[in-house]
What does this fold into?
Amino acid sequence: MIIITAVDKGYGEMAAAMMTSVAKNSPGYETKIFHINNNWKAAHNIKPFVILECFEQGHKQVLWLDADIIVRKPLKGIWRGGDIRIIQRPLLSKDFKVNTGVIVIKKKAIPLIKEWKKIIGKAERKRIYNLDQRTFWKAYKKCPEIKLSSLQMKYNDNLFRDDSVIWHAKGHCRQREEWKTEYKKYA
It folds into this structure.
């Protein structure tokens, strides 16, 4: 099992804080930060590429965490479930059904990740909001044999609840005091 993220020059400090929070609150996992020499868009769209690289290196499970995350408690429960565990958003628009900020991927899901890589590679030239999430969903629809199971919100929480394992400070959430206080513990 490996825990990974990817960053460009703008997210390096956040990724370091995130990995420090992993080491402190859920020690024992191999971790890796992929450094992208490009812009924010490229760092988000690199997800399927680096996930596949981890499987090629022999890992059986991969946990992707966006750089703007703090792990507050042990991650032991996150690994159990389907071939891919991810936050699902069934009420949102047809191609915006998941949040790819936290993804648990088992080796069995490699066909979906390869399909995601292909789709995101073709679409990357377009300026599409949350391209990684939209292309993941398209790839999933092409791979019905892959079992997708939903992560509980405690593993990808942007409301910063006390009982959550992972806090995810997407965009404007980074201005909230509870995030700033928690982030300072690891920065």
